[in-house]
C-alpha cells in the first residue's frame, strides 16, 4: 500500500531525473491506495435502519471493507465476511473468516452456511449490508443441492486452466451454486439488501463481481453449458445433469423480489488508472489510459502493448514521449507449461520478448490485490536491459514463456514486485514508461 516511504519518493520532479523503477512502483502504489476500502467505502454507507444491521460479504477486500464499515458505523452491527487466507483485517463486531482462493475449500463452505443462518428470520426493518469484491466467487462456496464441494473444486480447477475469461467462469459458477446469481439476496427477505462492490470485472458489470450473490442474473444454464463446451471441460455426470435439467437456473432481472434493494460500485480499475495517470502528470509525464477492460491471452495482450510502445518510441505516434501508457482489465493464461507465475508475469515475459530490449522502455504489471495468480508476488518490473541480464544468468525469456514460468524468470533477476495482500482488488494494473 501507499507507505510514508513512498510518499517521500513521489515529489513532482522533472521526467529526466525520475528513476523508472521508482516511478512505476509509485504509480502502482497510488493506484492501489485509491481503491482501498478505507478510502472508497465510507462515503457510500447507507443510513442505519430502524432494526438490525447484519453485515455479510466475500472477496479479497471483504475484511478491509468490514473494517471500514466498523470505523464509521454508529448503530448496532453484527455479521460475518469471508476473505482469502492472509487477507484478513482486525474487526471487533464483524467476524472475519479466511478461506481458500481460487479453488474453494471447506472453510469457505462453512462460512457460507453460517451466513445463511445469520440472514434467516430478519424483518422488513432490518438491513443486510453485503460487501462484495473480486475473489468472492471461490470464497463463498455453497454448492447447489446434489453437487459436492469436490465437484465444484474440480470444475473450478478446469475453468482456471482453460483460458476462459472471468465472465465465462462466473457464468458456470452461478449455476452450480446455492447462493450466487442473486440467490443470497432472496434468502435475506423481507430485509432490505444494500450491496457495496469493489469491481474486478472488465466493464464493471456488478452482476459478475463474485458471481453476483445479491443481484439478479441474466445468464442461463444453457449459457453455462455453452462455456463448458467451448473449452472442452469435462463435467461430472451429476453436474451436467444439474445444468441440463435447468435445476441450476438463477432469478432473472425484473424479479420483484429484488425491489427496494440497492447496489453501489465503490471502486473500479478506471478509478485506479485515473489516479495513476494524474500522479504521472504531476511528475511531468504525459499519461494515457489505453483501456480499463482489456481481456485476452496475456502474451497476446503483451504483443499489442509492445507494438504501441514501439510506435511511440520510434515515431512519436500516437503519443509523444516521454509518456506513460496505462491499462487494466483481466488477462488470462492458457496453461501449457509447468512453471510458476500469474498473468502479470506472463504479460511481462511476452512484452520482454516482443520489445527485444527496445531502449528507453520500462514497464510494470501487477495485480492490485497483491497476488499474481497464486504466487507471493503482485507482479514484476521490466527494463530495457532485462534480456541482457537474463542471458548473463543463462535464462531464456522465450523458454520461460513457453513454460508459463514468469515468476521464475523475474525472481532470478530480482525484479518481482512484492507487496503482500493489499486487501483490495480491481485486477490488473499495467504501466509502460517510454522515455
Automatic annotation (TrEMBL):
Residues 323-428 form the MOFRL domain. Pfam families: DUF4147, MOFRL. Signal peptide: none annotated. Keywords: Oxidoreductase. Gene3D superfamilies: Glycerate kinase, MOFRL-like N-terminal domain, MOFRL domain. Its EC number is 1.1.1.81. Residues 24-244 form the MOFRL-associated domain. The keyword Oxidoreductase applies. GO terms for molecular function: hydroxypyruvate reductase [NAD(P)H] activity. SUPFAM superfamilies: GckA/TtuD-like (SSF82544). This is Hydroxypyruvate reductase.
